[in-house]
Design goal:
- The chain is of the alpha/beta class.
- It has one domain: Roll (Nuclear Transport Factor 2, Chain: A).
- It is built from three helices and seven strands; from the N terminus they run H-H-E-E-H-E-E-E-E-E.
- Strands 1, 2, 3, 4, 5, 6 and 7 form a seven-stranded mixed beta sheet that branches.
- It is globular and about 50 Å long.
């Protein structure tokens, strides 16, 4: 069984690989970061690797360049080969038509250790804010009401 430090390192590596492979449009390697039964929620749910591949391929075709920045990574082991994680994300997108779009938000994941590495079994992309997107259908980061004085 992996130590907590190994789980932290492995899950974080998968999250960093996600950003790098996406930014470099290495779609086939990118899709291997997911379990076969993945649920990917980013403005609509894609279930299974073939659906994720198709969805992400369509998105990548819209962009000349991308740059995803990950921070505030938190990993919690939930079992011998399962973990939950979240990380803050800033994503810069340069579209084919010259427009630039930005998103600030969070990745919320469930990961499983399969085939010798940590893979994303469920990913939910939550948005805190955006610039340059007219109509972005992402779920929002939940906010609490401030208590009365």
């Amino acid at each position: 069984m992996q130590t907590d430090a190994e789980v932290q390192a492995g899950v974080t590596a998968t999250m960093l690989d996600y950003c790098e492979l996406l930014d470099e449009k290495r779609l086939d390697e990118f899709v291997e970061l997911f379990t076969d039964d993945v649920e990917f929620e980013e403005g609509g749910v894609a279930k299974g690797k073939p659906h994720v591949r198709n969805k992400v391929r369509k998105l990548l075709a819209m962009f000349q360049r991308l740059s995803h920045h990950l921070s505030n990574v938190r990993v919690t082991r939930t079992g011998p080969e399962t973990a939950k994680s979240s990380a803050y994300i800033y994503a810069w997108h340069h579209l084919n038509d010259g427009r630039v779009m930005e998103i600030w938000g969070r990745y919320v994941d469930e990961q499983r250790f399969e085939g010798g590495r940590w893979k994303i079994a469920k990913r939910t992309v939550l948005m805190q804010g955006a610039r340059g997107f007219d109509d972005l259908a992402l779920m929002r980061v939940p906010l609490q009401e401030l208590p009365p004085r």
